[in-house]
Amino acid sequence: MTENIGHRAAVYVEEHSLSSGMRAGDAIIAATAAENNLMLCTGNARHFRIIKDLQLKIFKS
Hints:
By secondary structure, the protein is an alpha+beta fold. It is built from three helices and two strands; from the N terminus they run H-H-E-H-E.
């Protein structure tokens, strides 16, 4: 984990915890994907869909 990922994750939690229930673990995953320009594949759309700078691929389990 880098300083940028940690900072971005903290911002995500601050901005989205009330509206989507995002917690630190999901925020770190999202921040890692965003900082490294990677697509995040998940079945948990609720916590990640609200992040605009995240490339997201949602699958149904």
